[in-house]
């Protein structure tokens, strides 16, 4: 967990994917929307975990 650049990139990409899905929800097919939404939920959840690990590991 020492490579903070990779963590920051993953967090930005996951939040950007979620924002794009929210903005373009009307133009996506229903089947694709479901899988992309699940992917975005998983990625954002992992991002929150990585942010918490980074905050708790910063004190060491």
Commentary on this structure:
By secondary structure, this protein is mostly helical. It is built from 2 helices and no strands. Helix 1 packs antiparallel against helix 2 (30-57). It is elongated, with a radius of gyration of 14 Å.
What Rg do the Cα atoms give? 14 Å
> What count of helical segments does DSSP give?
2
What is the global morphology?
elongated
- Give the topology string: H per helix, E per strand: HH
- Spans of at least 5 consecutive residues with low confidence: none
- Structural class determined from secondary elements: mainly alpha
Helix content: over 70%
* Main beta sheet strand tally, sense and closure: none
Gap between N and C termini, in Å?
13 Å
Strand content: under 5%
What's the mean pLDDT score?
89
Secondary structure: number of strands: 0
List the helices and strands and how they pair.
Elements lengths: L3 H20 L6 H28 L3
Helix pairs in contact: 1-2
Summarize the structure.
This protein has 60 residues and is mainly α. It is built from 2 helices and no strands.
List keywords for this structure.
60 residues, mainly alpha, 2 helices, transmembrane
């Amino acid at each position: 967990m020492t490579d903070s650049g990779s963590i920051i990139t993953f967090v930005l990409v996951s939040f950007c994917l979620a924002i794009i899905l929210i903005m373009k929800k009307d133009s996506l097919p229903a089947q694709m929307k479901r899988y992309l939404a699940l992917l975005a939920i998983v990625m954002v959840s992992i991002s929150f975990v990585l942010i918490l690990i980074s905050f708790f590991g910063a004190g060491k």
